[in-house]
Automatic annotation (TrEMBL):
Stored PANTHER family: NITROGEN ASSIMILATION REGULATORY PROTEIN NAC, TRANSCRIPTIONAL REGULATORY PROTEIN NAC-RELATED
Ranges for domain HTH lysR-type: 1-58
UniProt keyword annotation of Repressor present: no
Family: Belongs to the LysR transcriptional regulatory family.
Pfam families in the cross-refs: HTH_1, LysR_substrate
Family annotation (SUPFAM superfamilies): Periplasmic binding protein-like II, Winged helix' DNA-binding domain
Keywords, alphabetical: Activator, DNA-binding, Transcription, Transcription regulation
Domain of life (superkingdom): Bacteria
Presence of keyword Lipoprotein: no
GO BP terms, alphabetized: regulation of DNA-templated transcription initiation
Species annotation: Microbaculum marinisediminis
Protein name as annotated: LysR substrate-binding domain-containing protein
Molecular-function GO term, any one: DNA binding
Length: 318
């Protein structure tokens, strides 16, 4: 198996037919078919089912594609990284972020990369922490900002900040007061919560308390937009941060109350795959991200406690 075979295989997988794959790779259909036949013979397993209207991947083909995508992307990054060693930083960098991180630094990240590294092609994906983790594990993103990731030898993680969680909802639901509410009183409210799973882990560090909240929730959703809309409709309240619905809180549409006995918090991590070496472009983008996080916290935009020493804001912007 060589890189050409993998590239041709990936083209067939993505294009669905030999003809379209050959056009993309600028080779003859017969040459593409020959390489595919050799690859299947080498692996002793069919990778596609030949049909009149195209090529349908087998289970083995699906599995090989997952590996091929990572291998080809790593090879392209390695080639670009060596080229960049003696010149201007360039290349593709894909970043996945949880909703709160995008809200705090997403626009500034895009602006700073465009200004400082015009030859870097930045791809930014926003999703819930559970989905962001999945994107990272599948190598769809190279760097991820997510909350409370699981312990996994495949992951290299760095805790960046802690956020204190609050109760968010209409005053008539959570109370027309700024006084803190006890966790036991929170459980008596109509709670709207993230659906169970890795995304729910992102709400708080204490798994035992998380299970109690899940058991009492009246609605479980896997959508930030749906939860926000439900809060405004007065269907219930949720556990989040002030940043989560910042504009609605400042306008008075929603209210927040601190939670005590105990306080609830969550930890943001910068995560990468241990098996994937960084490139110059990735290191540059990571430095911008950490500097912007530090700036957002120190300015008060992101109400959190930094867990590491981060560079001053001037290091992040051109």
């Amino acid at each position: 198996m060589d890189s050409r075979q993998l590239r041709y295989f990936a083209a067939i997988f993505e294009q669905g037919t030999l003809t379209r794959a050959a056009e993309r790779e600028r080779v003859a259909v017969s040459a593409l078919s020959h390489h595919l036949a050799n690859l299947e013979h080498e692996l002793s397993v069919p990778l596609f089912v030949r049909k009149p209207r195209g090529m349908q991947p087998t289970a083995a083909g699906e599995r090989l594609y997952a590996h091929a995508k990572l291998i080809l992307k790593t090879m392209a990054s390695a080639e670009q990284d060596v080229i960049d060693a003696g010149g201007e930083i360039a290349g593709e960098v894909s970043v996945g972020m949880a909703f709160s991180a995008v809200k705090a630094i997403g626009v500034d990240l895009a602006r700073t990369v465009l200004e400082r590294y015009p030859k870097v092609k930045l791809s930014l994906t926003e999703s819930l922490s559970g989905s962001t983790l999945m994107h990272l594990m599948m190598s769809e993103v190279e760097l991820a900002l997510l909350y409370n990731p699981p312990t996994d030898p495949r992951l290299k993680t760095q805790a960046v900040l802690d956020e204190r969680m609050v109760c968010v909802g209409k005053r008539e639901i959570i109370g027309d007061t700024d006084d803190p509410m006890r966790f036991s009183d929170l459980l008596d409210l109509p709670i709207i919560f993230l659906r169970q799973g890795v995304s729910a882990r992102a709400i708080m560090n204490d798994v035992a308390l998380l299970k109690k909240i899940e058991a009492r929730a009246i609605l479980q959703m896997n959508s930030v937009q749906a939860i926000g809309g439900s809060l405004l409709a007065g269907l219930g309240c949720t556990i989040g941060t002030r940043l989560f619905m910042k504009e609605r809180i400042e306008s008075g549409d929603l209210h927040v109350r601190p939670i005590v006995e105990p306080e609830l918090s969550r930890t943001l991590h910068i995560c990468e795959l241990t098996e994937r070496p960084p490139t110059y472009a990735l290191e540059a983008v990571r430095a911008v991200i950490t500097a912007l996080i530090g700036e957002a916290v120190r300015s008060g935009l992101w109400e959190a406690t930094l867990l590491i020493d981060l560079p001053p804001a001037g290091h992040a912007k051109a």
